[in-house]
Amino acid sequence: xxxxxxxxxxxxxxxxxxxxxxxxxxxxxxxxxxxxxxxxxxxxxxxxxxxxxxxxxxxxxxxxxxxxxxxxxxxxxxxxxxxxxxxxxxxxxxxxxxxxxxxxxxxxxxxxxxxxxxxxxxxxxxxxxxxxxxxxxxxxxxxxxxxxxxxxxxxxxxxxxxxxxxxxxxxxxxxxxxxxxxxxxxxxxxxxxxxxxxxxxxxxxxxxxxxxxxxxxxxxxxxxxxxxxxxxxxxxxxxxxxxxxxxxxxxxxx
Length: 254
Fold this sequence. Notes:
Layout: H1 24-73, H2 84-87, E1 98-99, E2 108-109, H3 112-117, H4 138-148, E3 165-167, E4 188-192, E5 206-210, E6 215-218, H5 221-224, H6 228-233, H7 241-253
């Protein structure tokens, strides 16, 4: 008969040893440290994101500048695209990329929208700033824009379409006369939206594009300070825009 060892069948008299783990105090200390580090890092991460969006906004302006260049090269005289609102002195509405002529009840491509109509923009999304959180996002108009890009199609929508950039109307902000793309004067062409409180793309400051191809970041509160109440409550007064454009031009001329 084979004798078996019954040692493994007997109950062990050794005390049970629990597995290692965190105590409640250790867990609370760990969570406190994580919360503290998160609080320290969040402003930095927000700043990094804002800087990245500011750069992307500038890149979009650069794409629009190349569109201006292509448009001007195909004209007998390289004038900038016209703007119906600017011509009618509705300066705050020059963010629009479609407008109605007095003799026509249909929306037509206008201002920066002319670049889109004739295919001078590689991507219609460059008309929109990644920092924009208002009513005129790319997604709002995506279907209309993608159907029309580069196809010389009429505007499919009866509603007015807007970009996130304020167009200077293709005119000299000092004289109001139309400007040539290759004009030696470094005229401001466009800047971030200023039509209403929701159209300010960035928390502090704006990008601007000049006819020399320079993109400059500037503190817009310096010359908007007298109009901040209007900015907070709603639309900026239409009559204030010539002064604003003149202030932006001074920033560029420095």
